[in-house]
Specification:
Chain lengths: 190, 568
């Protein structure tokens, strides 16, 4: 089975996953996507307020919601996975950090880049004789926009963290739903 | 008290009541084997010829006894030789704890002699695995491994222990099994998934909805899958079927979950399912599938599968719901518990007309007895006549496997041991060894084909070495029969690499291993050989010469509608 359907419109989904903060878990989760035929667009992982728990934000593009359900269910089944939620774009805050090192050999170029950065509320975090580095935080379309604007100057290097996301309002991933109870049933040890 | 990691490991096996392990020693696991030497009065170790055989044996032991199997192997090739066995156990949800040792901490990551990343390799084919680097962590890991292997949907787990951890000393505090759930890493897992320590219960509203659906159904049909076998829920299932008054099909893994001679039994369903089973699933208005995952060998075409029915899926693994076939209703739970709850609420139904309709189709294909060859049906019938009714049957994979499931009846969980999901040729003899070791009082038959038998027949040395009275019934058609059947029907009789070029003298082969061999080509010969083999008390091989073009009937090709029989 492949999630990469031919000729179908691919839609992007953001999954938030809470997992044990332990060796091998990242590999287990990422390998699950590849062996079920999914390509990960972006993946960001870091420890949460609880040191024993990490949060992964994973973005995938698939052609149907069934595919998303399938991969979420396979994820939920893994022992080190605590909970999984698909975050709706309208109800969540998504941010990524990008660092862009741009060629800037003249004062004219430097001035234009500084102006652009100001418009995007990005910061210049390094200035060298022939280059400067812009740090920008935002949704990924904002990163794309600033990247396209500075590209004519010549991008020397670029690094992106991948998107991290939280839901708006008081929601958390750990809500006790009937479905979560059903998955926990299977993990319960006797 | 202080003891070495190896001793802690063995003590933890004893905590779980382990008295039998399968395995093969080697360099990095020497400390563990040295410890086992001290415990040889309490733990029986069965050494096979090859680690794959040990893996299948531990699996067969687990399937046939309902206990957790244990299999040991050394690092590198010892560990990779387990892989087919681990995958087989994973696909069929068999609880086995695999324990490998790896090179010492100072050698890890340096491509040392016999070093391999077995936790990485086995990640997609284990329910859980871990690498243990210190003796302090061994007890915790073993307790967690056993609990995970046998709980929920059972499955294989793997612990890879570094050699230094088996040699170092650590504190070991014995812990009764009842206390495992409240200590260490297992305690943390329990706390996370079940805040109350009570056993989880299926949702009662879900149960009641199904009771209503059963009340409205006019043409109910049941599928008994491997989950019924794993949960040992055969008597609850039989009560349920009688109450709903519905015909019942088994999947390959469901063999033993519902008695084959029950009048409600339609036999196997799917690619080689009976006409009664396949027509019933197509015509029913309510399909209740318990502990089955609607694999591509059952729901050949998921879109048209049970198209007229409301589908109810009962499974312990929530991820199976809506994975292959869309379910109109589902209940997540242990098959035994769900059936108990259902049985307590159901009123007796009656579906005489529907049953008459279903059983107007044959539940077993009549094979023509024309020609002078011994047929698979004759062999199976003779086995039914002569072998004790509770005989355990371990099969390999191919035509003989399908014949063994179609023609023999299985009346209790663990009676049929077969590689249903993974289809691993070579599974049978190892599984038979595990079953015989775990059930010394039972008769164990290994039914195999010449292709499968050749893959692991070296385990005959284990059969003779351990004095196991396993009888191998070899269906010899001098070809890879199932592949040839496809080549005949679908590949225009282009027999690419299926016919056996070499003739093996299986009688001499058996004798070479110190066992008895027989070659038979008619019913009387087979009957006599089987009687002698069962009475002699040691391992035997009975080679049954059958026709090269014998086929498994019925057959529906993969992906086709379930009633589109290519062969009836």
């Amino acid at each position: 089975m492949s999630a990469q359907g031919k000729g179908k419109a691919m839609e992007r989904y953001t999954l938030a996953v809470l997992v044990d903060n332990a060796a091998g878990v990242l590999s287990q989760v990422s390998r699950l996507f590849s062996r079920k035929g999914f390509n990960i667009e972006s993946l960001a992982v870091g420890v949460t307020e609880d040191e024993a728990v990490s949060r992964m934000t994973i973005e995938i593009k698939v052609d149907s919601e069934d595919q998303v359900t399938l991969i979420c269910n396979q994820l939920r089944k893994l022992i080190p996975v605590h909970s999984v939620k698909v975050l709706s774009p309208a109800r969540s805050m998504r941010r990524e950090l990008a660092l862009i090192k741009v060629r800037a050999e003249t004062s004219e170029a430097r001035n234009e880049l500084i102006q652009l950065s100001n418009i995007f509320r990005a910061s210049i975090i390094d200035v060298a004789p022939a280059s400067l580095t812009i740090a920008v935080i935002g949704e990924d379309d904002k990163t794309d926009a600033i990247r396209n604007l500075v590209e004519p100057h010549g991008i020397l290097e670029m690094a992106r963290t991948g998107v991290i996301a939280l839901e708006r309002g008081g929601f958390t991933l750990d809500e006790e739903t009937k479905e979560k109870g059903e998955f926990d049933y299977g993990k319960n040890v006797q | 008290m202080k003891m070495t990691g190896a001793n802690i490991l063995v003590e933890c096996l004893l905590e779980h009541g382990v008295d039998t392990v399968f395995g093969y020693p080697g360099g990095t696991i020497l400390n563990v084997y040295d410890a086992l030497y001290d415990y040889r009065d309490r733990i029986r170790h069965v050494r096979t010829v090859h680690e794959q055989g040990a893996a299948h044996a531990a699996d067969g032991y687990a399937r046939s006894t309902g206990k957790v199997g244990v299999c040991l192997a050394t690092s590198g090739p010892g560990a990779t030789n387990l892989v087919t066995g681990i995958a087989t156990a994973y696909m069929d949800s068999s609880p086995v704890v695999f324990i490998t040792c790896n090179v010492g901490r100072h050698l890890i990551g340096k491509d040392s002699f016999q070093e391999v990343d077995i936790t990485g390799i086995s990640m997609p084919i284990t329910k859980w695995n871990c690498m243990v680097t210190s003796a302090d962590d061994i007890a915790d890991a073993v307790r967690e491994a056993f609990a995970i292997a046998r709980s929920g949907r059972p499955g294989p787990v793997l612990i890879d222990i570094l050699k230094n951890a088996t040699a170092e000393e650590a504190d070991y505090a014995p812990l009764a099994p009842g206390e495992h759930r409240s200590a260490g890493s297992l305690g943390a897992l329990v706390a996370r998934v079940s805040p109350s320590l009570a056993a989880p219960e299926p949702d009662i509203a879900d149960i009641e909805r199904l009771v209503e659906m059963v009340g409205r159904a006019e043409k109910p049909f049941l599928i008994c899958g491997g989950g019924v076998v794993r949960a040992r829920a055969q008597s609850e299932f039989e009560t349920f079927a009688a109450c709903v008054d519905a015909p019942v099909a088994i999947t390959v893994m469901g063999g033993g979950g519902f008695p084959g001679d029950n009048p409600l039994s339609t036999g196997m369903i799917g690619m080689h399912g009976s006409q009664a089973s396949n027509m019933a699933v197509d015509h029913c208005d309510l399909l209740i599938a318990i502990g089955c995952r609607f694999s591509d060998r059952v729901a050949l075409d998921p879109k048209s599968f049970a198209a007229q029915a409301k589908i109810v899926h009962i499974d312990i693994d929530r991820a199976e719901i809506n994975k292959n076939v869309h379910a109109d209703h589902h209940i997540v739970g242990d098959a035994k518990r769900v059936l108990e709850l259902l049985n307590a609420r159901l009123t007796r139904q009656k579906h005489t007309q529907w049953k008459e309709h279903v059983f107007s189709y044959p539940r077993e294909t009549e094979y023509s007895l024309a020609g002078d060859h011994l047929t698979p049906k004759q062999i199976s019938d003779a086995i039914s006549r002569i072998a004790p009714p509770d005989t355990m049957i371990a099969t390999d994979v191919g035509q003989h496997q399908m014949w063994a499931i179609q023609h023999l009846h299985y009346d209790y969980p663990g009676q049929l041991l077969t590689s249903g999901g993974f289809g691993a040729m070579g599974f049978g003899l190892g599984a038979a060894i595990g079953a015989q070791v775990g059930n010394p009082g039972k008769t164990v038959l290994h039914i195999t084909g010449d292709g499968s038998f050749r893959m692991n027949c070296h385990e005959l040395a284990t059969v003779s070495g351990c004095g196991l009275p396993i009888v191998t019934v070899l269906f010899n058609n001098n070809t890879l029969g199932m592949v040839r059947q496809w080549q005949t029907l679908i590949y225009h009789e282009r027999y690419s690499e299926t016919d056996m070029l070499s003739r093996v003298d299986y009688v001499k082969l058996a004798e070479a291993y110190g066992l008895s061999g027989f070659r038979v080509s008619d019913v009387a010969g087979f009957e006599a050989a089987l009687r002698t083999a069962l009475a002699c008390g040691h391992g035997c091989v009975i080679e049954c010469v059958i026709d090269i073009d014998e086929k498994v009937r019925p057959m529906v090709p993969g992906g086709k509608h379930i009633t589109q029989f290519l062969l009836e």
